[in-house]
Design a protein that fits this description.
Chain lengths: 112, 116
């Protein structure tokens, strides 16, 4: 049982390049999330999707776009990467509001 | 104002001692949930314990317990008989029951180091 799978695990980009972070869950969860983690800042919500076909902005959405491709997959796109987007990115999902979040293993992104 | 406050950036504790990690929260919603996660140096996020705002008893999971004081808006994590493997970052998080984003809001974390 894979849970939440994120790819890639590591990525280095140059300023202005674009990339998509992929996330898939096999637990039939409705809600999926993208967080970023910066030193001393905890985890901050970028975007979320409460169900297939819907997406909403979180606390720090600027510079990102998302796609909920189907119930399993939720991707995060950086159209024009900036050094301020250097961070660790986590995808997560959950079954219901009272349930814990299941996290992927994270993507370490560096933008030079 | 911060919704989740963790006032201890770092803690050093002797092995086998009990540890209390502080967490205070701010919400006007009567329905909310409080979570604790552990993040070891390998980076994964590990769920430890959950407390609902209407739960009458403090949550416990093995060596972990949550000291929930609703009037004081605190949800401290207690680790009994600490072990070297407990060294990690610990995050307190809250989910509020109202509309809008239903993801978790995280505190900035406490870096716990267990010393032999």
């Amino acid at each position: 049982n894979a849970g939440v799978t994120q790819t890639p695990k590591f990525q280095v980009l140059k300023t202005g390049q674009s990339m998509t972070l992929q996330c898939a869950q096999d637990m039939n969860h409705n809600s999926m999330y993208w967080y970023r983690q910066d030193p001393g800042m905890g985890l901050r919500l970028i975007y979320y999707s409460a169900s297939e076909g819907t997406t909403d902005k979180g606390e720090v959405p600027n510079g990102y776009n998302v796609s909920r491709l189907n119930k399993r997959e939720f991707s995060l796109r950086l159209e024009s990467a900036a050094p301020s987007q250097t961070s660790v990115y986590f995808c997560a999902s959950h079954r219901g509001r009272e349930e814990k979040l299941f996290f992927g293993s994270g993507t370490q992104l560096s933008v030079l | 104002a911060q919704k989740i406050t963790q006032t201890q950036p770092g803690m050093f504790v002797q092995e086998k001692e009990a540890v209390t990690l502080d967490c205070t929260y701010d919400t006007s919603d009567p329905s909310y949930g409080l979570f604790w996660y552990k993040q070891p140096s390998s980076g994964e996020m590990i769920f430890l314990i959950y407390q609902g705002s209407y739960d009458q008893q403090n949550a416990t999971e093995g060596r972990y317990s949550l000291n929930f004081q609703k009037a004081r808006k605190s949800a401290n994590l207690v680790i009994s008989a600490s072990q070297l493997g407990d060294s990690a970052m610990y995050f307190c998080a809250m989910r509020e029951g109202g509309g809008g984003a239903d993801g978790l809001t995280f505190g900035k974390g406490t870096h716990l180091i267990i010393q032999p």
